[in-house]
Fold these 4 entries.
Entry 1:
Amino acid sequence: MKSSFLSLAIIPLVCIAIFSQEVKINSTSLTLYQSNYAIVKQQIEFNASADYTRLVFDKFPKDLVENSFNLLFDGEILEQSIDLKKVDFNTALRNAIGKEVNLIQPQKLSQKGKLVLVGEDEIALNLDDGSSLFVKDLEGYSILINNYPLDYQAKPIAKWILKPRRSGLNSAFLVYHTRGLSWTTKYFIYLDEQNQKLSISAYANLQNFSGMDFTNVRLSIVEGEILTKSAPTYDYRMEKLAATSEFSRSVAETPSFEYYKYDFPQSVSLNDGETKLLKIFSASNVPYKKTFRYTLNTWTQPNTRDNPYILVSFVNSKANNLGFLIPRGQADFYFTSKNDVEFVGQNNIRSSLEGEQVETFVGKATDISIQVISNETRTISENLQEVRMELLIKNFKKSETSCEIEYLENSSFELVNSNIKPKEKQPQRLLFEIPWKPQSSFNFAFTVQIKR
């Protein structure tokens, strides 16, 4: 009898259990840009096993820029993923169960009640009269939910599978980009007309609408326009530092690549939804000049009557208690007297380096008027036109003053004649300064030839 034997080969299976490790944030650095963009850098710690370690991290702002985060640590990153799933319509509605809603039918009829049930393309309401309303097909319906700020963006979750070089406590550096954080410069400028001196205070106006609080972070802000592939009025919370009588800098700029960076020395907290002012610098006894300017061109219509703009200018120099980068921003101007302060205008200020002149318009002069009496154009040749303009300028002030008349064109032109010598002359710009006696008028005329 022949016997048969069945031989079984037993192959051991090796299973590697990868457990998620708790992540501890030791410190956070935040760099804000002026374009609704920020870089977050965090030093983190976690315990690692000898083989593989799985990390899960969800302490991100809701506007995390996808594929921008990276982890730097002593080991290998075998896998990295980010979950940026949006909350679907039904989930968002389920989160509103118990809320008061208005259901607007396709016929524009509205019914109000409490949302009690949400299904696939169906809802149920308890109406105010005690009855219940079931809707099986929501096509054409609108649902208005009272006092419910809907957020379709789920919080991002990052996951890593790591192979560290050593087990035990490991540290790493996490860097990612986010939107919802930004800064601008806010200026408060006080004009002393009697002494022709101004005082200026500059603040970094920080805004956080990222969906996340930042507590005790190292803060930097960058002045400059970055390229990325990718304002309302708020109550201000101010954090001021001590100032000297004429000049105080809370933070100094340092070159960073082709931009300028400000590193604040103190720890800063910026909660979600918060707007905060942090002082950059202040200066006083800065000499300034106030002039009036009216701008016109070929397209200015005859019989146009207007008032010139009030132009405030000062030189960014050490002699004027300045002499450093003045970042672009928005300025509020105030007129100061012995017993009062009056708001006189608001406008933007462009960035200015040492030695440059800062100038901006703050409003229009009420007691100076300019009327365009005539604007005559004649064609001399195919590529040449002659334009003659005449203005009637009236000074209702009881003091002597002057007004600048600026003429601009997109093409090069030549001045043929004028009854006032130009103060500045450029290929596409002329600037005249018209002096006036108190309560007087002046007829100003000039002719230019424009190359088309």
Note: The radius of gyration is 33 Å.
Entry 2:
Amino acid sequence: MQKTLTTNATHTELKAMAIATIDEQTNRIVELSREIQRNPEVGFREHGTAQRLVEQLEHMGLDYRTGLARTGVKARMRGRSDRFTVAILGELDSVITPDHPLADPDTGAAHACGHHIEIAAMIGAALGLQAVMEHLDGDVVLFGVPAEELIDVDWRLSLRDAGELEFVCGKPELIRLGEFDDIDLGMITHPGTSGQESLFEMDHSWLGAILKKVRFHGLTAHAGENPHEGINALKALTLAMTAIDSQQETYRDEDSIRVSQLVVNSGDMVSTIPGTTDLEVMIRGRSVEAMQDASAKIDRSMHAGAIAVGARVEIDTVVGCFPFAQDEPLVEVVDANARTLFGDSEIDSHAGAHGASTDSGDLQMLMPMVLPIVRSGCDGLIHSKDYQIDDHVLTAVNNAKLLASSVIDLLCDGAANAASVIDRSGPKLTRDEYLTIRRSMETKKTFG
């Protein structure tokens, strides 16, 4: 039986109480992680996952709101004062990996990115924090957020065109809706890839991502009888791809520009000059300015391919997410707690740059954000058919302890640490400023 805390309990006593509570709830946390892992759902369609989160919140006696950006779920735990609010986030969605052993046979969805441990860790941290909230000088928001992965884009664009959403990823859409206006700091965790020496990595950065849907319009003709009367949309696409490759030396190394391409439609049949072809292009970069520069160069390349053969090209540009460079003052808080919990040798404090992307970068433009990665308990390469979470204690339960301990440090003693982190993290964008930048980069252009 746990002891009762005094009114002036120290942060060490509060953490001990929270961690003891999490330990008592280990089986519940692990089972939630496994249940979500067995029932994957892709972004903006995570209705079952959202319901599982709702059941946990109801069991904790918390009020909540649902249906945020289609499937998001948000609850608030109140402290003894509301000076600041810290959000613990968990991503609801999966990726599509049809050959994964736990893939949904109908949709191909699979938790080959490990988001299920985020939801379990969030609930685990909440269970620990619920035992000490009356001693904290701030609130904690639990936020199940949809659609972190930039997939299923055609369907999401159909939702945009129907007016059901504006942005194709979950956190940007929730920002637009004002759902982060009442939050001051954010925390989220993520599993990593196996084969790493340390248990956790900190202070890494992620690239931003832009997606272009490109369609070339030519003129069909018989490929043998009268090809000279056609306009070959496939040739336009091929020339455009060559122009894209020719841009590579114009990118600065420090901007980490990565351009990937996929021919979605190359024509209807080999005996006909293709009249319509489709290309998808993804641009990743380490700064908004670098992404904007690369986007303009890709548009020029598309235009060049069309001009060369007399075709027309339509380019629909959507922003997936912005670059993510974590806020060092908040990293310091989480890093210190990780070292206390797991030992110095288990923490890689300066993990460096990642080549992947996350829409937590959008949120970091508005508030201090941190994203520790747990490396142990994972097996296989992330996003592959072999990726599995083998140890839900090392991943979900350990993360719950780290998140809860870090929140306590931020919100105890008058929330002095939260105030310091916000001040030292420097100026952030307002929601309107953020939306202006994002909307300026989402364009529809036609050339030819």
Note: The mean pLDDT is 95.
Entry 3:
Amino acid sequence: MRLNLFWKLGLAFFALLIAVLLPVDYYAERTLRRDYERAGFERLTSIARVALSSPPPVSSFSTTSRTPSPALREWLTKMASSGVRVTVITSDGLVLADSQSDPQTMENHAGRPEIREALANGDGLSIRHSVSINGDLLYYAARFAMPSGPPIVLRFAVPLLTVNDEVWAFRRRFWLSSVVMLLVTGMASLLISRTFSRRVERLQSFSRRVAEGDFRPIDADRSGDALEALAVSLNDSATRLDRAMRTLREERNLSAAILGSMVEGVAVVNSAERLLFANEGFVGILELDSPPQPGRSLVEVVRQTELIEAVRDVLKGAPRVEAEIVTGTLRQRFFAATVASVKATENSGAVVVLHDITDLRKLERVRRDFVANVSHEFKTPLTAIQGFAETLLSGAMDDPQNRVRFLQIILEHSRRLARLTDDLLELSKMDADRLALEVDRVSASQLV
């Protein structure tokens, strides 16, 4: 990480600096070249004005001989002493004299652009390659009107090599200073990028510590830049995250304590029918040897098909399913199972709650037995009363001996029904906690 970021910043700075220097060099070279060319033409123009103000004697020109006269050679030497090349050309392009070449070896110059322009406009400029001296020159031609006959063209030239030398000298100085600047700024940028990368590494190490659960704050630099603001922001985030994690842990511990202390069995199943959580009540109800590991399949833990089907119905989309399961063989226990759907942002599942209803079922069985017994106790006297009453109505009323006996039996069973009714009323009062305590004197011999 250090070398990667370090070199990235350093190379990026170098690339940016070179990207700035290259166009600067390009435009500076073009501007300098134009300035030197303009200065060269201005120099040639000044020399041409001097030459036109003091032209060679008219008698020194000969349109028939290409050998310059002594007066013309003297004039050429005088003009060439300023460092320029001077050429005298007729209007038809014939070279009469040249300060650097033999005019007899020079070709016709009628097609030269500066000559044509000078004959047409009075003066002409051009930059081109010279065949005579095999080099690039700046040319300035001026038309000189003869008293009689066609005009003569006086051409002045300076080597372009001088301009190139000046430009290259400037470029050498420019690049030398640029290299020095690159070295100085490069070292400074490397030091800055190294410091920057180390600070970034500290922030990265801090974020790694926070991810591992270490929320100790990082010492922020007093640089006042964006990295310091980032470090302060990360410290604030770590503090809030630490507070949130503590709250979540407390809530988780509280939930675990509540679920662990519940008598009811509670379990959480995900959409893949795998147990995510089961409290001690759930383990005890299903008589498991040990708490199931999170991720185990529901069918591996639960043997009650009613409970499995209820969970599957909820996972298929039912919001709530209630069922009843029975555990044990010799000693059966009854549980009411409630399965409810749980939907999170991305995952869904079901919550299973098992409530022990064994006592309720026992009470229901006792109640059924009690009703059956009471019904039997009521049926015996009622049957006797009904039977003897029907017998009396059938003619036994006329038999004095049996009539009295039958009526006594009816009276005895009626009293039995009254006693049963009084007992039921007493039981009802006991169940409603409304039975009044009766205090009475009894003989001790009756209790022994």
Note: The first helix runs from residue 2 to 53.
Entry 4:
Amino acid sequence: LHVTLKNNGAGNATGAVGLLGTTDTYITITQDYSTYPTITALGGTAVSSNAYAFSVSPACPAYHQAAFSLLVTADGGYTDTVAFTLTIGQMAEGFETGDFTAMPWQMSGSLPWTITTSSPYEGVDCARSGAIGNSVNSTMAVTTTVLTPGTITFHYRVSSESGWDYLRFLDNGVEKGKWSGEVSWTEASYAVTAGSHTFTWRYSKDGSGTGGSDCAWVDLIVFPQLSSVPVITTSTLPDWTAGYPLSQQLSSSGGTGPKTWTDKNGDLAGTGLSLSAAGLLSGTASTGGTISFTARVVDSLGASDEQLLNLAMNAALAIAPDTLPDGIAGQPYSQTLTANGGTGTKSWTDQGGELAGTGLTLSADGVLSGTVATAQMISFSARVQDGIGASAVKPYTLTMAAAYICGDANGDENINVGDAVFIISYVFRGGLAPDPMVSADANGDGTVNIGDAVYLISYIFRSGPPPTCE
């Protein structure tokens, strides 16, 4: 900390010494003494020859107002005490990171602002407008939330065509100041209300001409008190399905500057999920169950928040049954498929459309139904998808057998003399009727009579023609 003294008296001040003190419990002064060069009369100034130094307790809250006193003595018996306060944790952007990552800066216009080490106001780096041509601009802006009314202060330098090419500062789109020509480092300060603000620095050129270095510089932006500690606004996570990739962005409000996320206790280790520094919860869990972890977010001032989050991980989808029963051609068929596991509503489809033309369809609720006209083997793949997009597929094959065997009058699935006897019993003795009746019409004449029994005996014992039911 360097302190500047101003001499309003009529005589030069020599032998000036300053002793820094504080009663603030968060502050420990480590260098309290400095001399000053001669301060000339009537408004002369001088900066402390040495830097005062102090440390701040980690327990000190952000934006704490620390009170200091400076006991000043000089030759001739002069003595005075100057009181002042410093805001601890005040957000200042001096671009000393060497880039624009300390704040959520947004660039627009023809070319972005850049970081330069050429003649900064303080430190090593400052921001410089882009090397643009005529009739365009180079703009940098930052949007943040101001917690209480205050002041934004920054230093600027301009080297441009005077009266034509300007550096402009805007607050929420309202121009607060503009400068052109040759302007050395100068401090600007503007009152700011509480609430959301977009602070904009824009170097713009007219349609022709250049002057000087044709650019502007900005350094040491001191913001008013920004939004307080960050607050994690994500309180719940959606149910999910094991085996399906998860990508869920956690969110927070408040805080200052960039925020960094961590899995505080490492509870996600081994789950297949991880939490990125940007707050993205992602990965693929292999098993079902409840996954609990503590998300922690820290802003650029060290303020933080934590939130215990629970994620219900449902088991992976599994289709049942393993096999389907065969059916009979010409007869209605219905079988319901089920799916265990998954999340939310499940929907079924015939993957690849393989059931088309078979007489069977698979409904969205998993019912396989219809009537197959002819005996055949049917293969298809059933696919089920849950409410988040996870899916499972199972291939099935089923046989649609003929509705009857021509000549198998007694329905024992064989053609033998028993079928001839069955027909004779039916025709002459009032025995049971063949089911279906057409299965006993062995000679294909459209009726069931003794001729069908004779036809079967000829087929069985005399190598006659096979049954031809119609």
Note: The domain at 404-470 is CATH 1.10.1330.10 (Type 1 dockerin domain).
